[in-house]
Design a protein that fits this description.
This protein is α/β, with parallel strands linked by helices and about 325 residues long. Helix content is about 30%, strand content about 25%. The protein is built from twelve helices and 14 strands. Strands 3, 4, 5, 6, 13 and 14 form a six-stranded mixed β-sheet that branches. A six-stranded parallel β-sheet has the order 9-8-7-10-11-12, sandwiched between helices. The radius of gyration is 20 Å and the shape is globular. It starts with a strand and ends with a strand.
Length: about 325
């Protein structure tokens, strides 16, 4: 089979190689799937760089989520059958940027029939992260103001749609006119281009000086610091990650004085500590997808041979929307 592999860590264009490797065999509790589509995620960039919290042994194949067709079952697997279309998290070091991948039954779920392969492939990490952030960690309520940083990105775009589905008014912060256009298409009520506008002033104006009830922040750095200047009384800032490369040092005295909460979310921990919540989340995401309330917007459908370039562009911040790689393309 063909697979992208990383033999030494570094920038995606420099370290990813497209190789012929031995076919995989599922072990007990595993599925072997033919990869139908695998989206680009920022963790894939970090994996290539050796900067992700998980460091698989070299060489490894990145690709942290996928949509696939089950082609073989490991011993003891009864939850799925050959031919099923599934989505979820492949088992590193054999990730999704390949013709075949392995998945644990614990991290595989039926693909919603209403979504095509590329759309379904992007429903796991970003949308589950957004769902847990908005419904488990910040408990977003209908009518509240949700401010989404990096709203055109993988997790940000999911948060925009999930916020609208929850009945919130959504403000998306992006960098550049193309990303602004994409975020409007996602359904955001207001979009701020940080390259030309001060989102703090815009949020205060939009809310009559009150500020945002919930801030969804996968960026960190200056975006986090400015968010604290436009957070409402009893507001909640949920910290998703640090795509800016800078981990902020929050002023806890400021949180005390303004009476807001700083909340962390590590979505992956739910797989270890509360897998039932992951299944509940998938069921709700499937319901929302079937109702037409959420739908991953895939901006580029690329062939498997284009993984290195696509990941490099994602890491450079020049992509708009979600990129998906389709081996059959």
């Amino acid at each position: 089979m063909k697979a992208w592999r990383v033999h030494e860590v570094g920038q995606p264009r420099e370290v990813l190689t497209f190789e012929d490797v031995a076919d995989l065999e599922p072990k007990s509790g595993e599925l072997l799937v033919k990869v139908l589509a695998a989206p680009a995620n920022f963790p894939d960039v970090l994996l290539c760089r050796g900067e992700y919290q998980i460091k698989p042994p070299l060489p490894f194949t990145p690709g942290v989520e996928l949509c696939g067709e089950v082609v073989a079952l490991g011993e003891g697997v009864t939850e799925f059958a050959v031919g099923d279309r599934v989505i979820g998290i492949p088992s590193l070091p054999n990730g999704g940027f390949a013709e075949l991948a392995l998945m644990s039954v614990a991290t595989a779920f039926p693909a919603p029939a209403t979504l095509d392969d590329a759309e379904a492939s992007a429903l796991s990490i970003g949308y589950q992260t957004g769902w847990f952030a908005l419904h488990r960690r910040t408990q977003l309520r209908a009518g509240e103001i949700l401010l989404v940083q990096a709203a055109a990105g993988g997790v940000g775009s999911a948060a925009v749609q999930l916020g609208k589905a929850a009945g919130a008014k959504v403000i998306g912060v992006v960098g550049g006119p193309q990303k602004a256009e994409y975020t409007r298409a996602l359904g955001a009520d207001l979009v701020v281009d940080r390259h030309s506008e001060d989102f703090v002033a815009v949020v205060k104006d939009f809310t009559g000086g009150r500020g945002a009830d919930v801030v969804f922040d996968p960026v960190g750095g200056d975006s986090y610091t400015k968010s604290t200047k436009c957070i409402a009384f009893e507001g909640r800032i949920v910290v998703i990650g640090f795509a800016s490369g800078t981990i902020p040092s929050p002023g806890l005295n400021h949180a005390l004085i303004k009476n807001y909460s700083i909340i962390g979310l590590h979505w992956g921990l739910y797989n270890a500590y509360d897998p039932a919540a992951i299944r509940e989340c998938h069921a709700e995401l499937t319901r929302l997808a079937d109702a037409g309330d959420i739908k991953p917007m895939i901006s580029e459908r690329l062939g498997l041979s284009e993984v290195a370039d696509g990941l490099a562009r994602l890491g450079e911040g020049t992509t708009v929307g979600r990129l998906a790689f389709l081996p059959g393309r």
